[in-house]
Amino acid sequence: MLKKLYYCKLSAHSKLEERLTALSRLLPVLNFKSRIKQNYKVGIKTHFGDENNDTHIAPELIKVVVNHIKNLHALPFITETSTLYSGSLQNAIQHLILAHKHGFSYGSLGAPIIMADGLMGNTEIKVEIPGIKYKSVNIARDAVLADALVIISHPTGHILTGLGAALKNLGMGLSSRKGKMKQHSSIKPYINSTKCVNCQVCMKWCPVDAIVEKENVAYIIEEKCVGCGECISLCKYDAVRFNWGVQSEDIQKRIAEYALGAVQNKKDKCFYINVMTDMTRECDCMNIKQKPMIDDLGILGGFDPVAIDQATLDLTRKYNKTDLGRLSEPKLDPTVQLDHAEKIGLGSRSYELIEI
Ligand code: SF4
Ligand code: SF4
Questions:
Q1: What lines the ligand 1 site, CB under 6 Å?
Q2: Taking phi first (over 0 means left), then psi (-120 to 50 degrees means alpha), and beta for anything else, what does residue 340 get?
Q3: In 22, 77, 187, 336, which residue has its Cα 20 to 30 A from 239's Cα atom?
């Protein structure tokens, strides 16, 4: 059966007002009432953007969703998890301070922010899944305890997966630190010493100090590396290598299985919204300012994370020569995550797009 997706178009360089209007038109169509009952604790999962990122979803849009849920007499909260690597998002305290700086707070949103994985990112519940790679996954506890979830994702390119959208927001974004480690464990970058000019940028940037100088070139200490992939996109000399095809496919499949775990107890109580604006080459976890790669397209909403990411790729392909994933990382196939997610029963790549 085709999964219904609702699409509200935006102009190429849309402003906040236009986005707010589009979202306000989309939400009633999604009929939250059919899946959210009175007093349900509803987690709204989004991303606040790293320190220098300014293309993340605006807090004003999140507030519209908060108000919509409050009108149903349910209890919305904004939720996130800490990152695997050190930096401004590495624990609940720093993460919440940064969220506040980016305009996300109880004062601005009208709902509390609850870090689903606790103070240090290790508060989790082991969830059993019918996966191919995993039979159980480590999910941030309060995401599991929530009665319903609204996953609001900002599609971008991604250095390891090609596309970062709803599946990544769910799988990586709602796993505990241990879960993130397990997903990243297949990424093993190494230095091509003939290309390295020892500029040391990667050494200063690596969030876990896993890169050192050895015999006048960079060297990655494998035991310390958490596989975040940031050095790969950072090196201007193409000296940081990883096995693109094999390792990307592996992490995409792991993310899809974690995404299944994140919604396993409430697949019929989840909503997905992809805000296709300011789509950049790298994801919002990169601590840099970025320019959008392509024009804004609109806001998509639906009940299936696989269908919504498939439609995101298709729409970006329709208006550009190729899709967002391949524009960002031409060597990667971003559909691996979709294909695997479909295989394990998370959703369907077939959809019907209804323009509103
Ligand atoms: S950023 Fe690239 S060139 Fe510079 S030290 Fe690291 S690997 Fe070498
Ligand atoms: S992938 Fe690169 S930047 Fe990330 S932890 Fe490993 S060595 Fe450091």
A1: 191, 196-202, 218, 235, 237, 239-240
A2: alpha
A3: 336
